[in-house]
Design goal:
Helix content of chain B: 40-55%
Structural class of chain B: alpha/beta
Strand content of chain B: 15-25%
CATH architecture of chain A: Alpha-Beta Barrel
Largest interface: A-B, 40 and 38 residues
CATH class of chain A: Alpha Beta
Largest sheet of chain A: 9 strands, parallel
Distance between the termini of chain B: 55 Å
Structural class of chain A: alpha/beta
Number of domains of chain A: 1
Shape of chain B: globular
Distance between the termini of chain A: 33 Å
Strand order of the largest sheet of chain B: 3-4-14-9-10-13
Strand order of the largest sheet of chain A: 5-4-3-2-1-9-8-7-6
Order of helices and strands of chain A: HEHEHHEHHEHEEHEHEHEHH
Shape of chain A: globular
Strand content of chain A: 5-15%
CATH topology of chain A: TIM Barrel
Oligomer: heterodimer
CATH superfamily of chain A: Aldolase class I
Helix content of chain A: 40-55%
Number of helices of chain B: 17
Number of strands of chain A: 9
Chain lengths: 267, 402
Amino acid sequence: MQNISRIQNSIQNSRNKPAFIPFVVAGFPDLETTKDLIKLFEQKGAAAVEIGFPHSDPLADGPVIQQAAKYSLENGINADKIFNTLEEIKAEISVPIILFTYFNPVFKYGIKRFLEKAAAVNAAGLIIPDLPLEESEEIKILCKKFNMDFIMLVSPASGTERIQNIARNSSGFIYLVSSTGVTGVRKDFSEKLTNIFREIKAVTTTPVAVGFGVSAPEHVQKLRTLGAEGFIIGSAIVKIIDKYKDNKMILLDNLHNYLKTMDISNG
Amino acid sequence: MSHYFEKNKPYDLPNLKGRYEQFGGKYVPETLMGALYELEAAFNQAWNDESFLNELYSLMREYSGRPTPLYFAKRLTEHYGKGKIYLKREDLNHTGAHKINNALGQAMLAKRMRKPRIIAETGAGQHGVATATACALFGLQCEIYMGEEDTKRQSTNVERMKLLGAQVNSVYSGSRTLKDATSEAIRDWVTNVDNTHYIIGSTVGPHPYPMMVRNFQSVIGKEAKEQLQTLPDYVIACIGGGSNSMGMFYSFLGEESVKVIGLEAAGHGVETDKTAASITKGTPGVLHGSMSYVLQDNYGQIQEAHSISAGLDYPGVGPEHSYLKETGRVKYYPITDKQAVNAFHLLSKLEGIVPALESAHALAYLEELMPTTSKNEMVVVCLSGRGDKDQQSVLNFKEIGQ
């Protein structure tokens, strides 16, 4: 019997419609704050939390996340320290944790070893933005073995055939990129979004969450109209963390206020 | 069959997934996958289209000055007093390096794909100049990404690119060199993929780039082989990403008697952390879209490279070179900044040819190789570019050295 995806379950049962999925860079500004942020997001009703593993060459990221990753790396953050942090709080949280990492850190760590550790700290899913369908066979099989979702990205530049192929292969949710480009602020979402959403829904019931540049209440309203089951906020959150990183109380306050403006329901 | 480019394959690689055994592949964001398939289809069609290849070669001939001479370096040969040294004069190409071979080919492809905007990365500025040149020739909009550190040490090339109508974007992230310029160019491509073609300058990046760049550059070795009329004993070239070397080597890899040697930049030395010797010191990993040898730490973070030569200052290498290292068909050795600078001076003084610092890495290996050769042996060195751009770097190096 197939295991039920914790992430899919959490999205479908979220009191936020669409469900809210925040992203933070691990260790930015430090790992203790990362723990506090996970707990804050859980309180705020996040359906899952994406933990970004910092990488020296984040090709899919805009300046905000690039800078945060650089900051973390310069402070000696690495995969083992991140796993230790997740181990320390796993008993205190129930929100599903998604690991967001580029492929090379996983490859160098050892794919199997990385997934063993991920499973041990109770991670529920994995996103690798530079690992397209063609290169993901091995990792998909291992994710299944460790009962983790392998969440794949669909882009406005993917044609119908690729979109549907990825939709069939992604579990937990399908990560729909709002428009071509790197993470961070953009003028608008792709006009193709509605069509792509339909093409996905024609082949799967897996939820769709939209990310890249989601930062304002009108974005969420747009996605609600679209019918998306979830949305990811990354750069907008990381930007707030960057601005208030010197004072944790003020940081948490500001995040709290920001999420309120985004109409994310308080728990 | 066109005879300008090498069509005889020494092995049937890359495979359909763009792999050279475990190396190569396509490790890019989903947004680029469609563009890579489109490019692969366009390239395969062009590569089998005589009219495309004829048009490309007539440009190479009439615009860029091909065939480049194979020059017998008499005084350099006498200096070592052993085997005969020949220089494949890619420095005599229009724009001063082999980079134009690939830039013309890819600009023609961009035209075919109806992509009006071109982006490129550059280290030494040679590929940037070649791309800006090809864009001027074809009326394409052109933006070049260049690390801020490199814009300083190669400022004349920055001016040249601007003169040619290109916009030069300085990159301030990371080590502010070729690696970061490449990352930034990929980010631009992810954003503007609909109307933009990315002209990668070396045999790096996701499939089909390493194969395509190798094939366009194969004109170098194919010509050299015909000019020699007999097989040489040694073929040597410098390696950064590896485009002049793949182009030079490709026609000789199937010839068992020919010893093929690649020289990579050791910087201050492979025992230091100021090095760019990815093959000697690196481990398999993914950088800029393909699996290959890269300089990285235990957690897969890419390390900063160092070389006096901006064109070799890169912590990775093309996937086909990683494959050739594994099979042992090509031998790879590191050359330090100091050795390269000495070779730079030697060729300038003995032959009246000022080589690019990149090419000087290949020339430096002659110090070790030539004493082991015999009088009737032939050594062919790919002189990939001219060194005018490097005068200041060499001068500065001398001052530091003293």
